[in-house]
Amino acid sequence: MKSLQWLAALPFLGMMAGPFFLNRVEPLVLGMPLLLAWLVGCTVATSAIMALIYLTDPANREPGEEP
Amino acid sequence: MNAALPIIALAVLVALGLGLRARSGHDMDMEQWSVGKRGFGTLLVFLLMAGEIYTTFTFLGGSGWAYGKGGPTYYILCYLTLIYVISYWILPPAWRFAKERNLFSQPDYFAARYDSKSLGILVALVGIVALVPYMVLQLKGLGIIVATASYGAISPTLAIWIGAAVLTVYVMVSGVRGSAWTAVLKDFMILFVVLFLGIYLPYHYYGGIGAMFTAIDGAKPGFLALPDRGQSATWFASTTLLTALGGWMFPHIFASIYTASDERTFRRNAVFLPLYQLMLLFVFFAGFAAVLQVPGLTGPDVDLSLFKIALQTFPPWFVGVIGATGVLTALVPGSMILIAGSTLIAQNLYRPLARNATDATTGRLAKGIAPLLALACVGFTLYGGETIVQLLLIGYAVVTQLFPAFFFSLLPNNPLTRAGAMAGILAGVAAVAVTVVGGYTLAKLFPDLPGPVQDLNIGVVALALNLAVAFAVSLAGRGARRTAMP
């Protein structure tokens, strides 16, 4: 399932386009200004996305391992 | 004498000990010295890559920017996260290529891909221009940290000499293995210190993180978001992208790719390293906590905000712990820079010009260059003055110019020719020199552009010029060859 690799575009989109729409301090989310909270959320989501890509990428299987 | 000093001294000694011990059981030939015999596992590569990126600049500069600039500082978190997203795809092919051909350095990669010694020399020169200011920044940071944390008992000059001597010794003895082992100590300490400061300071002074941000927003409305002009959302997006692309192009960071034993190491790290960047959040919190507690720092002094608030909050022994951590954040990247810089000079400037150089003589030469390079950097640090900040900006923009030639070399059919790659890099570097040295921004160059476009990072211009020249020269070269054929 190599097709999941397009998901890697999302962190770029979130971090580069987000500030245009969410450039605000209020409301605080988890105690943080809205913009910062959004970017932190993007960082956490990036790890999750990369994990998903890693797990479904055939390049990471041991040779001879079952698909 | 205060309690901070022995703690800092202990950390330096432990780092030196770890660095020296790292050699045991390994024969220090060139491959072992500069790329750890390509035998590092996931954890060591993780620490090396995290270690190079968590420098004094992140520690002092991350909190300093939060203190001095507010919202724009969030870009550091973004670009460091995106660097690792990119790494998933670009590092494995670069690693494979380097392993097949037994490459040691970043210019080796370009020289081999484009089959051109001159391109290798050009890339080496660009690399050195970028590395020296980076090293000077580490040493300057080290001087500030030790002088502040020792309550003035040790002067910055003395601290710089001691720091440079320590890292030169373990670099000469253990090479990149020494860096990796001191990185273990450093990351353990920085994790503890940063988490503690980022949580304790907001609670101690404001009663909580939300309360802290409410107080700052009340005192300085809009400070915690991006301004409408200047470091606006356009600036944020373009700077994040440029620095994320440029990050891997620093010679010492590129060389760390070669240390891995297995290409899956990179893909695995691409999952965990973004999460690790959240540590920066606590660096920001510490910097923000200082905003209302130690007001009045301006200019380069904003980098002191973390230490200023620590001095007024904690007993000397804990200031010592923070200082020790700061010293390690300078030593680890400093040692990587020294190794990469010496390898660059020996392998990519001396070797192509010397007829009968072997791996052994080049390796000996690289180790011999290390102390000279360290000495040169100390000289720049002590006598270079403020121009160094300017140089660092150039350094970052300059290495980014290597990215197009690197990126296209990964494609199955590289559209760039040797001449195209060289012309592109030269054009980009020239554009950087003119715009950064001249202090130009897009707003100054093109006053008629709409406001948000003017806020684009000026580096975009150099990169665009680089691409245009690289493609034009490549196309012209191919066309000429075709007509020359019978």
TrEMBL record, chain A:
Residue spans crossing the bilayer: 6-22, 34-55
Domain of life: Bacteria
Pfam families registered for this protein in UniProt: DUF3311
Entry keyword set: Membrane, Transmembrane, Transmembrane helix
Protein name: Uncharacterized protein
Organism: Methylorubrum thiocyanatum
Lineage: Bacteria, Pseudomonadati, Pseudomonadota, Alphaproteobacteria, Hyphomicrobiales
TrEMBL record, chain B:
Record localization: Membrane
Entries under PANTHER family matching the protein: MONOCARBOXYLIC ACID PERMEASE, SODIUM/PROLINE SYMPORTER-RELATED
Chief site of localization: membrane
InterPro entries in alphabetical order: Na/Glc_symporter_sf, Na/solute_symporter, Sodium:Solute_Symporter
Transmembrane residue ranges: 6-22, 43-67, 73-91, 119-137, 149-172, 184-203, 235-258, 270-294, 314-345, 365-385, 391-411, 423-446, 458-477
Lineage: Bacteria, Pseudomonadati, Pseudomonadota, Alphaproteobacteria, Hyphomicrobiales
Similarity annotation: Belongs to the sodium:solute symporter (SSF) (TC 2.A.21) family.
GO molecular function: transmembrane transporter activity
Name of the protein: SSS family solute:Na+ symporter
Protein topology in the membrane: Multi-pass membrane protein
One Pfam family per UniProt: SSF
Alphabetic keyword roster: Membrane, Transmembrane, Transmembrane helix, Transport
GO CC annotations, alphabetized: plasma membrane
